[in-house]
From TrEMBL:
Family in the record: Belongs to the polyphosphate kinase 2 (PPK2) family. Class I subfamily.
Biased composition (Basic and acidic residues): 13-30
Catalytic reaction(s) noted: [phosphate](n) + ATP = [phosphate](n+1) + ADP
Domain Polyphosphate kinase-2-related: 28-251
Pfam families associated with the record: PPK2 (PF03976)
Protein name: Polyphosphate kinase
Cross-referenced InterPro entries: P-loop_NTPase, Polyphosphate_phosphotransfera, PPK2-rel_1, PPK2-related
This protein's record includes keyword Kinase: yes
Keywords tagged on the record: ATP synthesis, Kinase, Transferase
Keyword Transferase: yes
UniProt record, GO biological process: ATP biosynthetic process; polyphosphate metabolic process
Organism: Alsobacter metallidurans
Positions of the UniProt region annotated as Disordered: 1-30
GO terms of molecular function: polyphosphate kinase activity
Length: 267
């Protein structure tokens, strides 16, 4: 199931042809929820092994339009994972200090340590998305960044970090409903940001920026997946299954001790 959503390196992602309401191979919501429950417990057990092994790391990058469900994915997929081994970094508008460095500086600082899972809620990709659409940096500068990102991610993967990149693909119609919900439900008012309406007006420009990002930065070492995200249950189930499968393939091992446990006695 997982690889249906991969963007082949160098190929166009063709977002228009990808249905945000797709539920992939999932039968229905109930079976997806059952599968998710099983996968998130498995992810916790695998993470424990990754931590004990202490040699490699997993980086999960989440990108998507406002309301696409980045926070919900973190909550839905990693709520069984031991907090000791997970770090979540939300990439906001850069601080003065961050702007005084190259754009990848803060991403590198937040990269996961060996033995842990790092989650980027937004990421260095904002520097070729919002930065491009709002023309915060010149076009030539942005154009150089795709290769710089690929090189940066190669450094990470060459050093034992496996990278999973998920674009949460929602429809414009679904975004309207989710934004309206934030206005209608007092418990969601805090999530509403009038700036999101300005970005919604630039929907097509953002989709174009996403297309370019997917085409230029889906690499063999760190491919992109476009995850249908109109249905939250399908989104979580698909992502959890990819994370589980990736950790299973890494197959982290508890370290073997050089001493004989039988030679000790706990009095
Ligand atoms: P979120 O929408 O992720 O829940 P916020 O409402 O605080 O959180 O939004 C963070 C904002 O920071 C987004 O509008 C995003 O586009 C912006 N942002 C993130 N990285 C950058 C960047 N490198 N340059 C400019 N803006 C950025």
């Amino acid at each position: 199931m997982s690889d249906d959503y991969l963007v082949k390196p160098g190929k166009k992602a063709k977002l228009d042809g990808r249905d945000p309401a797709d539920t992939g191979g999932l039968k229905d919501e109930e079976s997806a929820r059952t599968q998710l429950a099983d996968d998130i417990v498995a992810i916790d057990k695998l993470q424990d092994r990754l931590y004990a092994e202490g040699k490699r790391a997993l980086l999960v990058i989440l990108q998507g339009m406002d309301t696409s469900g980045k926070d919900g994915t973190v909550r839905g997929v990693f709520n069984q994972t031991g907090p000791l081994g997970v770090t979540v970094t939300a990439f906001k508008r850069p601080s003065e200090e961050e702007l005084a460095h190259d754009f990848l500086w803060r991403a590198h600082l937040a990269a996961p340590k060996r033995g842990t899972i790092g989650i980027f809620n937004r990421s260095h990709y904002e520097d070729v998305l919002v930065v491009k659409v709002h023309k915060l940096v010149g076009a030539k500068e942005v154009d150089k960044r795709y290769d710089q990102i690929n090189a940066f991610e190669k450094i990470l993967t060459d050093n034992g970090v496996t990278i999973l990149k998920f674009m949460l693909h929602i429809s414009k119609k679904e975004q309207r409903e989710r934004l309206q919900e934030r206005l209608d439900d007092p418990k969601k008012h805090w999530k509403f940001n009038p700036g999101d309406l300005d970005d919604r007006k630039l929907w097509d420009d953002f989709q174009d920026a996403y297309e370019t990002m997917l085409e230029r930065c889906s690499t063999d070492h760190a491919p992109w997946r476009v995850i249908p995200a109109d249905k939250k249950w399908a989104r979580n189930a698909v992502i959890a299954s990819v994370v589980r499968k990736t950790l299973e393939d890494l197959d982290p091992q508890y370290p073997k001790v050089t001493w004989d446990p039988k030679s000790f006695r706990v009095e």
